[in-house]
Amino acid sequence: MCRNIRQLHNFAPPATDDEVHAAALQYVRKISGSTKPSQANAEAFDAAVEAVARASRELLEALVTSAPPKDREVEAAKARARAAKRYAAAG
Question: Measured between alpha carbons, how far is 40 from 45 in angstroms, rounded to an integer?
Fold first, then answer.
């Protein structure tokens, strides 16, 4: 599950609210051990996702760096190349 959480800091353009929410959802799914909570736990699950998303957004806004922003397409291409190499070695 957590492989879907991607680095969100120092990208141009900055991470969207949807990206932050998706990362928060993956985090809560991982620590709860559930991809879809029961009706009894849905409210707590949703509240946790919102709290993690809010904390993540605050963190991203507070972080500073002197490094130039990364390009999403370049980073995605690097990730695809790493995956191709990894899966080619496994097969």
Answer: 10
- Written as one string, the DSSP assignment of 42-61 is HHHHHHHHHHHHHHHHHHHH
| Cα 8-57-46 angle, rounded to 5 deg | 105
Q: Sorting pLDDT into bands at 50, 70 and 90, what band is 36?
A: very high
Between CA 80 and CA 67 the distance in angstroms is 23
The structure tokens listed for 41 are 């736990």
**Residue 61 backbone dihedrals phi, psi, to 5 degrees:** -75, -25
Residue 30's identity, in one-letter code, is K
Instruction: Indicate the pTM of the whole model.
Output: 0.80
Contact 89, 38 (CB under 8 A): no
Amino acid at 89: A
Per-residue pLDDT, 1: 46
Q: What is the DSSP letter of 10?
A: S
Residue 91: predicted pLDDT: 63
